[in-house]
Amino acid sequence: MLKRKSQTKSYNTTLLSIGKIILETHYGHFSREWWIVTKRNINDQATLLVLIRLGMQTLTKLNSYDFIITVLEPNMEISPSPRYQAICYFINNELINGDICTNSSFAITSLCKHLFGTKTKFSGPLIMGFNQEIIVEQLLKNVQFRPFEFFVEQL
User: How does DSSP classify residue 154?
Assistant: First the structure.
């Protein structure tokens, strides 16, 4: 059987603010909402998880415009997950604020749809640079403990 090479879009993303680690949030009851799976595997048996830091901000250029995504505090009445807001410096550097969303993909996709009228869907984690080694290293800097996801059937 032929295996196709994964064709993942790559964006030029800059980490503007690393954000902060909140012990209760990142290691408490709902910590699983604040870690994201990356593609780095250890012998295909464990998957590295990367911290989604509160206040983290990334900058990505789409359609020649600067988009910034910020990680916001959760609304615990709705969900313990992080919330995201995308903003864009649009024509004449006019600042356009997107909606606050519970999903980074929806935050960027809905703002682009509003600005450009397109139906293009974007991957929030890719736009935010979670696939880029330099960003992952910065997010894991000074992290004392990292959870891992293990695949029991592959041990």
Answer: G
How many whole angstroms separate alpha carbon 70 and alpha carbon 82? Answer: 10
Measured distance CA(103)–CA(124) in Å, rounded? 8
Pick the more confident residue, 153 or 77. 77
DSSP for 21-55 reads --HHHHHSTTGGGGEEEEEEEETTTEEEEEE--BT
Strand partners, 60: 13, 67
pLDDT band at 104 (very low <50, low <70, confident <90, very high): very high
Look up residue 83 and give its DSSP letter: E
Are residues 57 and 76 in contact, defined by beta-carbon separation less than 8 angstroms? no
Quote the tokens at residue 79.
Answer: 């969900």
Between the CA of residue 58 and those of 27, 68, 86, what are the distances in Å?
Answer: 23, 5, 10
Residue 21 and residue 53 in contact, taking contact as beta carbons nearer than 8 Å: yes
